[in-house]
Amino acid sequence: MKIHPSQQLHPQLDAPGRSFAEKDSVSYSCLVLLPKDNSMTTSNDHSITLQGSAAIIHEYLKYSINSIIFQRGIYPSCDFLQEEYNGIPMMVSRDDRIKTYIDNMIGKVQDLIMKKMITKVTVCIITVAKQEIIERWDFNITPQYDDDDAGGEHGTVAPTANKPLAKIQKEIRDVMRQIIATISFLPCLEERCSFDIMLHTASNVFEEMPVMCKDFLEEDIESIEIANAQTVQLKAFSTGVNQVDTKVVYRTFDG
Prior knowledge:
Oligomer: single chain
Radius of gyration: 18 Å
Strand content: 25-35%
Number of helices: 6
């Protein structure tokens, strides 16, 4: 099934006219979400449901985003604590403001995956002084099922995939190791920077989820393009229900 063209959304600021960089380099969203069940929700050891797939991607995004802002030196290393994710030591922010922002955003992503209304999550690294995007991490989320595969009227029965969880976890570990290794080739950030998270959604997201009208603003997708950029495509992983492709786009400073 062809998905509607994407729109790019970013969280609406809680104080009109103020950028996220003016708040100690922490992006704020007025999005408030209820806690989610992050279990894999498998019907058996070799069956992944749509809910389980969304939960797996939720955790992947959580640790990926934290790893990126740690490795890129967006905040002091003392603001992070080590946690183990999928057998790999990962650094996670202990700042409540950052944790809340990331949790709220990827919580909304989990909802959108369940509704098949998101195509990409973008993490932008932005200079505080000039508000220029100099690095962008794209997480493309592609459903691996059609509505007909879901079964029931209008696809009311959630799709499942018979893919062993251990295989999914191995694929994720491979991607996480690549993310950690990017520090070896990405240029040093010479300026003070912050980060922002943007969601690329189906064009009818405001109609299907009216609450997002209050919490998000539509953004021109061209606003995140980076001039003189290099792109590195990382490995992909699949839950059998959704595939996630990760890439980093960064500005070169050769001229």
